[in-house]
Amino acid sequence: MFHYALLVILIRHLRFFFEPVPWCVRAVGFCDSLFEVGLPVLYVSDVLFLAALLYLLGRRLFDGRIMYISLAQDYFPLFLLLGIAGSGLWMRYLDKVDAVAVKELVMGLVTFHPALPSHPLAPSFFVHLTLVCVLGLYFPFSKLMHLAGVFLSPTRVVPNMSRRARWVNPWNDPSITPHPYAAYEDEFREKMLEAGLPVEKKA
Amino acid sequence: MATCPPPEELIKIAYTTPVTSWMDTKPVFRPGNFSYPAKPDILKYLGMPNPREWSPLDEDWKLPPDWKRRVTEKFRSNLKKYRSFKVFMDICVRCGACADKCHFFIGGGDPKNMPVLRAELLRSIYRGDFTLAGKVLGRLAGARKLDEDVIKEWFLYFYQCTECRRCSLYCPYGIDTAEITMMARELLNEVGCNINWILEPVANCNRTGNHLGIQPQAFVDMMDFLLDDIEEITGKRIRPNINKKGCEVLFITPSGDIFAEPGIYTFMGYLILFDAIGLDYTWSTYASEGGNFGLFTSDVMMQKLNAKMYAEAKRLGVKWILGGECGHMWRVINQYMLTMNGPADFLETPVSPVTGTRFDAAAGTKMLHICEFTADLIKNGTLRLDPSRNDNFVTTFHDSCNPARGMGLLEEPRYILKNVCRQFYEMPEIPYASRRFAAAAGPGSTTRNLPRRGFGAGCRAVTRSSTCATGTA
Description:
Mean pLDDT of chain A: 83
Largest interface: A-B, 52 and 73 residues
Number of domains of chain B: 2
Oligomer: heterodimer
Structural class of chain B: mainly alpha
Shape of chain B: globular
Shape of chain A: elongated
Number of helices of chain A: 10
Distance between the termini of chain B: 27 Å
Strand content of chain B: under 5%
Number of strands of chain B: 5
CATH superfamily of chain A: Transmembrane di-heme cytochromes, Chain C
CATH class of chain A: Mainly Alpha
Low-confidence stretches of chain B: 438-473
Low-confidence stretches of chain A: none
Number of strands of chain A: 0
Order of helices and strands of chain B: HHHHHHHHHHHHEEHHEHEHEHHHH
Strand content of chain A: under 5%
C-alpha cells in the first residue's frame, strides 16, 4: 500500500514539472480526487500514504520482536518520510499554499531560469522541499538502496540448472581429493577378502 | 546428563523479548542445551585447528591466542570468495518477514533464533570490522566488537540452525541464512569450536566411506540380514553386486538406510525395486555414503567427502550414478557437486535402461535422484503396482527441506505416493511443499533430538501449524 501510494503521489507531482501538464498525470489526479471531499480536494493516496507510514512505524515501535532487531537506520527513513508527508499535507490542506506560485518556482528551476515567484509562498513548502532534498541526499547511503537486491540477489535470479550445466568456480581447488581407494583397501583388504568382496590388489 | 522437562513446562513458550538489547544479552549454557564439542583426536585426524578437551560450560574455552586475527582473516577471505555472502551481509533491511518463520524460534521463543537476529550475530561483527559506517558510528549502526562472548554466542546459535532455508523463502531478498550459518561455522572451525555430532561422522566418512564407520565386511553382513528378511517375505533371494566393475549404474545411498529403522525399509525397497526391473547396478562399500556432513563443516570438507562419488564411479567404470534419498546429500549434489568435483566427462547423461528416458536435467552431474527414476518408471507403466495393498495406510507427505526447497523435487515424490497409496492427503496449506518446516537437518538431523532444543521445537512447531501429520518426518 505504501509503495503504490508513493507511486501515485510521485506521478501527481509531475504536474509541477511540465507545462502543459500531460494527460496521464491529470488522469491520475482526477482518479485520486474522485471522492471530491473537502477543498482543496482530498487525495485518496495522501490518506493511504500516511496510514501506511504510520502502520510501518507502529509496527517497528509496538511489535516487540521487530523493535528488538531495529536499528537507528531503520527508524530514520520512516521519520523522514513522515516529515515529508506531514509537511506536504500541512502545506496543502492547512496552509493552502499557492499552487501557481509553486509551479512558477519549480518551472523556473527546471528550465534553468530560476526566478522568485510573484506571490509569497508559505514556509511549509520550503520545509517540504528541504526534507525531500534530504531524502534525495540520504537515499544512496541508506538501506533503501537495498531494493536492488530484489532484482539482483543471487538466490532470486540464479536458475536451478546446477545439475545440468557446470558453473566454473575460479578459486575451486582441484587438489582437494578424497581419501584414496587404495588407502581404503589397504586398511580393510583382509576383511574384504573374507567377506567375498572384489579387491584391486590380492596381497 | 540433562533431564527433560515435563510437557507442561515445555509448551510454555514466551515470544516476548528481553528488556536489554540483544547485544548485551550473554548466551547461557546449561546441560542439555548445547551439542558436545568435537573430540581432540577427531580434530587431529582431520587436521583441523585447536584440538583440545573443552566444555561450553567452562568459562575459558581455551581459544588459541591469535583467535581474533584468525577469525577476522577468515571472514575477510570468505567475503572475497563468496559474493553472495557479501550481498547477504549488506542487504538485510530488518523487515522482520523471516522472524516468525524459523521452527527453532517458534518452538523455543529465543529471539536470537529469529533468522534476522541470527544473521545479525555475524553481521554486527561484519559492520564493525568491514564497513565504514560501522567503524565510525559503532553501536548506532548496529556494529559490535569481536570478543570471546561473541564466539560463544555463535557456537550456541549457529549450531541451532538446521539450514533448512525456510526463512529465505519469505525474505524479500532471499537472504540465505543457511549460507550465513555455513560461513559462521567455518569461522568457528578456525578456532576449534565445533561439535562432535558433525565431525565424528566426517572423520568416519573419510576413513570408511560412510558416516557411521561401517567397515566393508559389516556392510555386506548388514545387507545379508536385509536380504534374509526379503527372502522370508517374498521367497526370492536377491543377489546384488557390491564393488563390482563394469555395471551400468553405481547406486549410492546414505548409510542411515542400511543402519537402522526406518531406513532399512527404504533399503529393502531399493533392493526389491532394482531386482524387479532388472537394473544392472552395483553398490560400493568405499562410496557407501550419499550424505555429506562436510556440508555442515566447511567447503573444503564438503568437496573432499563428495569427491569419492566420482572417484568410485571412475574406478568401477559405470555410466551414471543413481542416488538414494537424503537431504544434505542432494543439496550438495544439486548445488555444489558439479562445480567442485566436476566435470564428470567419464560418465554419460543418465538414460533409464528400462524406459529409455533421457534425463537432461542431470546432464552435468550425471547423477539422478531415485524419486525421479521411479516416477519415470511409474509414468511409463513399467511397474505393476497394486495400491490396494496399502489401503490400511493413510498417508501424507512432509517435504524434506533440501529436496524440496533445495532441488525443486516437489512433484515426483507425490506422484509416486499417489500411485502406490489410494489414501493420500496433502498437508494443510501453510506447511505445504516449499513453505514446510524442514524435516531434516543442519547440525545433523538427530541433533534435533536433544531435549529442549530442536526436536521439541520441531514437534511443537509442526503441531501448531498443521492438523494432520501421519506422514514421515
